[in-house]
Amino acid sequence: MTEPTRDQPVLVLNAGSSSLKYQLVVPESGEVRAGGIVERIGEAGSDVADHSAALQAMTTRLHADGVDLDEVPLRAVGHRVVHGGPDFSEPVIIDDAVLERIRALSALAPLHNPAAVIGIEAARQHYDVPHVAVFDTAFFSTLPDAASTYAVPRDLAAKHSIRRYGFHGTSHQFVAQATADLLGRPLAELRQVILHLGNGCSASAVRGGRAVETSMGLTPLQGLVMGTRSGDVDPGLHAYLAREAGMTLDEIDTLLNKRSGVLGLSGVNDFRELVQRVDAGEQDASLAFDVFVHRLKHYVGAYLAILGGADVLVFTAGIGQHSAPVRAAVADGLGELGITVDAHLNASGSSQARVISPDGSRVVVAVVPTNEELAIARQTADLVG
Ligand code: ADP
To answer: 198 C-alpha vs ligand 1 centroid, how far in Å?
Structure first.
């Protein structure tokens, strides 16, 4: 194998149970050579039988985009893995033993880790380069015990690895650094509250570049209201629904993960459509918007208390980057806490990282685009050298 050169790309793969997202990224420059998604893997009537076929389909599409992986040799493949459990607090080079450990964590992430394992197995057969796993939970392995521990019996928690793990860590970590870069201040000095608002939503409190709190927990269901996930509910709800509505645990799990959140309240899960309906005066949509924002404020307040005040409040991901009404609503009424948003700056449609609070604000409010693929590519490249 020839020595990697600096313009050799990393292939970033994000394998779901029926989809494979891919991006070919040059880590140093951030140049994206190609990217896309292969969907409907293994579904009835689909041409893509399994993840190995999905990689073939990807190769064909890359070819059509003018990228021949044989001519532009890969430096490495970086795999997004949702759950690193208690085992993985950093990216790792994948060997057979690592793969088995990721597989063994499937109990903690039954919707996600099995798909990642299948994707990794297929990709290792296709590409004879180093493969790296980058975990969504890793950034939150630094949570203090007081934050990561659920108040359930300790022996049970130890036996079943029950703790708050947190997710979207790759994004929160990337955005924490990008925000420090935007402000021109050392990461080590900053207390940040970061709101990652995409289809999944999570908040984090980051002190000096280390995560000290986050809203997601054992699973990505806890915390903020999301597109289809309820976020926080009374833990007693499960028993109540089982008794009163005769629902099974699987039904309740599906209800809270797939049919709740903004979708359950308003009938739509796409935030653009929600905002249109709010503007059209639909009451269900307005309530969904208000519940979404109320929960966000709840966490912003909590994290100001956890951090003892913040230097910066950051919005990222689809909704965070693009929805001025959400940002305005979250900041509304928080002037006493040092948080205000300048209406004009907030309304700018810029896709760049930017500050949206008035000059001299006690807490800087910023919009900072996330880029999980680039973060995975960089962590992969750092590890393989
Ligand atoms: P994922 O979590 O799948 O990576 P994204 O970060 O792309 O998702 O976020 C998707 C969400 O962002 C969707 O709810 C989408 O409606 C919302 N979104 C995207 N663009 C806008 C916009 N211009 N205004 C409001 N919401 C937006």
So the answer is: 5
Crossing angle of the two packed helices 324-331 and 271-279, in degrees rounded to 10: 70
Decide: 323 in ligand 1 pocket, CB within 6 A: yes
d(CA 357, CA 270): 27
The answer to whether 134 and 121 have CB atoms below 8 angstroms apart is no
- pLDDT tens for each residue of 153-205: 999 999 999 999 999 999 999 999 999 999 999 999 999 999 999 999 999 99
Two structure tokens written together for 42:
């293994």
Residue nearest to atom 21 of ligand 1 (CA): 322
| CA 366 – CA 315 distance, rounded (Å) | 6
If one counts every other C-beta atom within 10 angstroms of the C-beta of residue 302, the result is 15
CA atoms within 13 A on the CB side of 124: 17
241-289, pLDDT tens digit by residue? 999 999 999 999 999 999 999 999 999 999 999 999 999 999 999 999 9
Annotation marks residue 136 as catalytic: yes
- How is domain 184-372 classified at the architecture level of CATH? 2-Layer Sandwich (3.30)
Q: What are phi and psi of 271, to 5 degrees?
A: -65, -30
The class (CATH top level) of 10-135 is alpha beta
Q: How many CB atoms lie within 10 A of CB 52?
A: 17
Domain ranges for the chain: 10-135, 184-372
